[in-house]
Amino acid sequence: MPTLRALVLCCSLKPSPAPSSSELLGRQVLTALADHDVDGEVIRVVDHNVRFGVSIDEGDGDAWPQIRAKLLDAQILIIATPIWMGQPASVCKMVLERLDAELSETDDQGRLLTYGKVAGIAVVGNEDGAHHVTAEVLQALNDVGFTVAAAASTYWVGEAMQTVDYDQAGPKPDTTGKATTGLAANAAHLARLLAQNPYPAA
């Protein structure tokens, strides 16, 4: 079985080395993917000079082209984002805006370069909103060419108006853990199928 690659884009607002619950859950997805012969890496987006815009390269030291190269080399993309005010983090929205440029990038058969790539999401927060964030992000990723597997999300939200974060809450094997392993299994399965049977020419 060939090894696939995954890229986890962590959309925490906090630069490294600050602890990040989003990065923790994203890394747990990557660990679960390893059980299905998928390797990869986590990139915390705010550690890089990613500029606002909707092109593949905004110039002036924009770090997105280097991140995009890794995305194009991967078969699976996982967005790991916190919830802020019931919404995906601003960093997540910036990433989606940059991915909008993929609508203009096609291969020699007229297909988007994102066709055949599988998307998933990992969400953390201290209040409700995980389903809303999942819906927004997966719809946006599908719009720009990614394929969404069954049960393509994992999440954890703490008690409302409390201060405990996911990285402080301890293991959740029967809830978030099961969602994480399900996401990994389905994403790897679908990515392998698409690698063997690409979408038809446009």
Give an overview in words.
The chain has 202 residues and is α/β, with parallel strands linked by helices. 36% of the residues lie in helices and 22% in strands. The longest helix has 21 residues, at 176-196. It is globular, with a radius of gyration of 16 Å. The relative contact order is 0.19. The model has no long low-confidence stretch (mean pLDDT 96).
**Beta-strand level of the residues, as a percent range?**
15-25%
Helix content: 25-40%
Q: Please, how many domains? A: 1
The main pleated sheet reads as: 6 strands, mixed
Number of strands: 6
Question: Which topology does CATH recognise?
Answer: Rossmann fold
Can you count the helices? 6
Shape: globular
**Class by helix and strand content?**
alpha/beta
Task: Note the gap between the termini.
Answer: 29 Å
Output the helix-strand order. EHEHEEHEHEHH
Task: Give the rounded overall mean pLDDT.
Answer: 96
Please identify, by name, the CATH architecture.
3-Layer(aba) Sandwich
Protein name: NAD(P)H-dependent oxidoreductase
Summarize the structure.
The protein has 202 residues and is of the alpha/beta class. The chain contains six helices and six strands, in the order βαβαββαβαβαα.
Q: Which key terms come to mind for this protein?
A:
Rossmann fold, NAD(P)H-dependent oxidoreductase, 22% strand, 6 helices, 6-stranded mixed β-sheet, Flavoprotein-like_sf, FMN_Rdtase-like_dom, 202 residues, alpha/beta, 36% helix
